[in-house]
Amino acid sequence: MCKNFVIQFIYLFMYLFIFLILFFISSCKDNSMNKNDLLKKLTKEQFHITQEKGTEAAFTGIYWNHFEDGMYNCVVCGEKLFSSETKFESHCGWPSFFSAMDKNKIQEKKDFSFGMTRIEVMCKNCDAHLGHVFNDGPRPTELRYCINSVSLNFEKSETVILGSGCFWCSETVFEDLDGVTDVTCGYSGDKIENPTYELVSSGRTNYAEVVKIIFSPQKISYEKLLDIFFSSHNPTTLNQQGNDIGTQYRSVIFYLNEEQKITAENCKNKIQKKFKEKIVTEISKFKQFHKAEEYHQNYFKKNPNDPYCTFVIKPKLEKLKIHLEK
Ligand SMILES: [Zn+2]
Known about the structure:
The chain is an alpha+beta fold. It folds into 2 domains: about 50-155, Metal Binding Protein, Guanine Nucleotide Exchange Factor, Chain A, CATH 2.170.150; about 155-325, Peptide methionine sulphoxide reductase MsrA (Peptide Methionine Sulfoxide Reductase, Chain A). Helix content is about 35%, strand content about 25%. It contains 8 helices and 17 strands. The protein has helices at about 1-40, 45-50, 165-175, 195-200, 220-230, 260-270, 300, 305-325; strands spanning about 70-75, 80-85, 85-90, 95, 105-110, 120-125, 130-135, 145, 150-155, 160-165, 180-190, 210-215, 240, 245, 250-255, 280-285, 290. It has a 6-stranded antiparallel sheet with strand order 3-4-8-7-6-5. A 6-stranded mixed sheet has the order 16-15-10-12-11-17, covered by helices on one side. The protein has a 3-stranded antiparallel sheet with strand order 2-1-9, with no helix packed on it. The protein is globular and about 90 Å long. The protein binds zinc ion. Zinc ion (ZN) binds next to loops. Zinc ion binds next to loops.
C-alpha cells in the first residue's frame, strides 16, 4: 500500500515537472516571438518607450503642441486611447489630456522608479507604456494624463451633429459604420444650460434630439454620412418621425464650418430629386451640444427586447441595410 503510494507520488511529481518544463519553453517562445514582432514593427524609440518604459525628452515629441481634431491611438496596437476634445496646453512639453477616451482601455499602476511615487499609464490591450497621470490637471477631472508622443499615433477626425427623430434610432444607424469612431446621444439647437430629457420632451425648448458622430474622413466621407442620414428617416415630415411628434424630433443638420454647410445644402438638393414631397430638413449653424443622460446612450444595444427597439429600430435598420447594399 505504502509502496504504491510512493510510486504514484513519483509519477505525479514527474508529470508536474514535465508540464512545468513545457510551459516554460512555450512561454519563452511566445515572448521572444512577441519581442521580435515588435522590434520589426516599431522604431527603436517606440520600442524603448512603450516596452522598456522610457520617456521622450520634453518639447521634442510631435504631439505636445499639436491641436488638430482627432484621436490619439496606441502606437503598438491601434487602440483608441485619447480624444483631441480632452487635450489641453499644459506647458509641460508632453501631450496632456484631462481624461482618457474610455477608462476601460487604459490601466494604471503605481510606479516607484527614480525615487518617486507616480501612477503609470499603460494601454490595457497591449500593455504598452504610455506615460503617467498626475492630479494637477484642469476641470472637470483635475487630472493630467502626461503621455509620450512616441506612444501615440494621431488619426484625424471630424464631427457631425445630426437630428433625425428619436436619438436611440439615430445612434443605432451610425454607431457600427466603418470609419465612425464614436456616437453620442444629446441635445442641440438651444442655449438653455444643462437640458434634461424631461425638459426637451416637453417641447418647450428649441432643442432637438441629435447624435454627435466622430468619424475618420479617410475611411468614410461626410457626404456618405449625409446620404445615410437622409435614407434612414423621413426628411419630408415637419417636426415628426412616425409616432414621435414635436420640434425635438425635427430633421436637422447642425454644421460646424462653411464647408459642412455647403456640402449639406448640396446633398439636400441632390436628395430632393428622390422625393415627391419637399424636404424640410433644417440646416443650422452648430452652437452647443449637451450629452444626454447615460440611460439614453447605447439604448438599442442595452435594450434589444424593448418594444420600441423591436418594432421601430430593427425594421428601420433592415430597410437601411437594403438601401446601402443597392
Ligand atoms: Zn496598445
